[in-house]
Design brief:
The chain is an alpha+beta fold. It has a single domain, classed as Peptide methionine sulphoxide reductase MsrA (Peptide Methionine Sulfoxide Reductase, Chain A), CATH 3.30.1060. The chain has 7 helices and 8 strands. It has a 6-stranded mixed β-sheet. Strands 4-5 form a two-stranded antiparallel sheet. α3 packs across α4.
């Protein structure tokens, strides 16, 4: 098993796309990249801890490759937004790929370069590629939020603009 860690704005919206796919063992919402040990949601959402809301994915690379994870990650985000993602603004909601190995770093950098050279976006691709650091699982109420709080999840997601962005920038422009 291997780990992949991605930040793509609100972690509630980053679980479902990866969840329950063949080869995906688990998807955990949490916090990474900050300076506070064992942060809690109320601290992280202030943007003052340095953490990103992120998901950590445990996967079987023989069944689901890191390249497939990267491809799935990119189409969940606006890679040109340096100030957060969609309605969620601030450093805690910025998009990033956190690599666990040198091979992941190389693949992430290549996928970012490929996206930049594709011409899909007029603005630069600003998604960060950073070394993985301590990952703190979020509180239980944030795990599998899309399943546990279906109505709240759908309302938040519909207000975010994420689906409209995905539709107009990823789905329609293949």
């Amino acid at each position: 098993m291997e780990k992949a860690t991605f930040a793509g704005g609100c972690f509630w919206c980053m679980v479902q796309p990866f969840d329950e796919l063949p080869g995906i063992i688990s998807v955990t919402s949490g916090y990474t990249g900050g300076v506070v040990e064992n942060p809690i949601y109320e601290q992280v959402k202030t943007g003052e801890t340095g953490h990103y809301e992120a998901v950590q994915i445990e996967y079987n690379p023989k069944l689901f490759s890191y390249e497939k994870l990267l491809s799935l990650f990119w189409v969940q985000i606006d890679p040109t937004d340096a100030g957060g993602q969609f309605q969620d603004r601030g450093s805690q909601y910025k998009a990033a790929i956190f690599y666990h190995t040198e091979a992941q770093q190389e693949r992430a950098q290549q996928s970012k370069l490929d996206l930049a050279e594709s011409g899909r976006f007029k603005n630069p691709i600003v998604t960060e590629i950073l070394p993985a650091s301590v990952f703190y699982p979020a509180e239980e109420e944030h795990q599998d939020f899309y399943k546990k709080q279906k109505k709240a999840y759908k309302e938040d997601r519909s207000k975010s603009g994420r689906d409209e962005f995905i539709e107009s920038n990823w789905t329609l422009n293949n």
